[in-house]
Amino acid sequence: MLRAPRSRVSQLPKDRCPGITHPDKMPRQGHWPALSVVLILLWGHPRPTLACPHPCTCYVPSEVHCTFRSLASVPAGISKHVERINLGFNSIQALSETSFAGLTKLELLMIHGNDIPSIPDGALRDLSSLQVFKFSYNKLRVITAQTLQGLWSLMRLHIDHNKIEFIHPQAFNGLTSLRLLHLEGNMLHQLHPGTFSTLTFLDYFRLSTIRHLYLADNMIRTLPMGMLQNMPLLENLYLHGNPWSCDCEMKWFLEWDAKSKEHITKSVWRETFMEVVQPRC
User: Fold this and answer.
1) CATH topology for 140-281?
2) Where is this region: Disordered (predicted)?
3) Would you write out the chain's pLDDT as a tens digit for each of its 281 residues?
4) What is the domain partition of the chain in residue ranges?
5) CA 159 to chain centre
6) Residue 85: beta bridge partners?
7) Is 133 in contact with 109 (CB distance < 8 Å)?
8) Which of 116, 18, 104, 34 lies closest to 73, judged by CA?
9) SS3 label, residue 239
10) What does R_g of the chain's alpha carbons equal in angstroms?
11) Alpha-carbon distance 88 to 91, whole Å?
């Protein structure tokens, strides 16, 4: 069997290489100071804290609570890492296009109980993670095609008890996560057949993902034919408190009602609305 010759360096006499120290005899204490420095840099360095905008309260870094602060505008300096904001019950009278800019991690926004008459187009475009938006009890009058664009994760929308008179037919287009929509207590007179469509294909195929729809206490006299046919997932529908017109334009509704009883699990209009609406042709 062949044997590789031993390294000549290992056979050097100790007196010939006085500067060379055997690895097993090298001191190891010298490694600890360097390691300590690394650990301090990795773990000992203080983490940056998220600033809390004045005069709000931030119980945890991901939440901003600003209720009952007499605010006239959205406070500046909100961290882009915030996930929940409550601005309810203040005196905010306007939003700007940059009020919520960069808040891509925001999941809940509550701005109810203020005096806001409009939402600028694009003001919500960065809120791609928003799941709940509560805008109840404001003075909003119009929902344009761009008002809600960007809210691709939105599941619950509360815009009840405003002064909404008009909703653009494409206002909810693209909001395919939307499941609950509160519109009661507004000033709606009429609706487009595709108003609540969240998915549109080639301007022909329309579908709504909404399961719970609140339209009570508006000024609606009739519903457009085809509007509810585009809502196959609908479970709850609230229509009471409207001045319904009992004519042939609502005849289709009785037919839809007869077919939908197996799908609609709970509908306030069955006890109140159907007693009033009896189309006479």
Assistant:
1) 3.80.10
2) 1-28
3) 444 445 444 444 455 445 545 545 555 555 555 545 444 444 444 444 578 999 999 999 999 999 999 999 999 999 999 999 999 999 999 999 999 999 999 999 999 999 999 999 999 999 999 999 999 999 999 999 999 999 999 999 999 999 999 999 999 999 999 999 999 999 999 999 999 999 987 667 889 999 999 999 999 999 998 899 899 999 999 999 999 887 777 888 888 877 776 666 555 554 445 555 565 65
4) 140-281
5) 14
6) 64, 109
7) yes
8) 116
9) coil
10) 32
11) 9
Amino acid type, 9: V
pTM for this predicted structure: 0.79
Longest dimension (CA), the chain: 121
Where does residue 194 rank: exposed (0-12), middle (13-18), buried (19+ CB within 10 A)? buried
- Find, among 59, 65, 54, 62, the residue nearest to 87 by Cα: 65
The encoded tokens of residue 280 equal 């006479």
Task: Kindly state the tokens that stand for 249.
Answer: 């334009």
Q: DSSP code of 48?
A: P
Beta strand spans in the chain (E):
63-65, 84-86, 108-110, 132-134, 142-143, 156-158, 166-167, 180-182, 199-201, 205-207, 212-214, 236-238, 266-267
If one counts every other C-beta atom within 10 angstroms of the C-beta of residue 108, the result is 17
User: Closest Cα partner for 233 from 202, 200, 201, 207?
Assistant: 207
57: DSSP letter: B
Q: Which of 248, 249, 245 is nearest to 277 (CA)?
A: 245
Tokens 């938006």 belong to which residue?
133
